[in-house]
Design goal:
Function: Antitoxin component of a type II toxin-antitoxin (TA) system.
Family: Belongs to the phD/YefM antitoxin family.
Strand content: 15-25%
CATH architecture of the domain at 4-53: 3-Layer(aba) Sandwich
Order of helices and strands: EHHEEHH
Shape: elongated
Organism: Pantoea latae
Number of strands: 3
InterPro entries: Antitoxin_Phd/YefM, YefM-like_sf
Radius of gyration: 24 Å
Protein name: Antitoxin
Helix content: 25-40%
Amino acid sequence: MKIFTLSSREFNQQVSNAKKAAEEGPVYITDRGKPAHVLLTFEAYKKLTGTRRNIQDALAMPDVAEIEFEPERGNVGFRDVDFS
């Protein structure tokens, strides 16, 4: 995994190059010579944070019909309302 470093000015002028570099590894963006931000691909971010998939992502998966899903029946209680 390569690590790239760009100044804020370079990043602003070369956003496309920074995005391409992020495919190979993190891109450190410096401000006055000190690391201030890191550019990652979304996949690298999800792997880093351990983000679990949500229901929308799960339903968008191929072969989703093969996943067993039996939600419990909701129990909604009704009560009388006094409008007096």
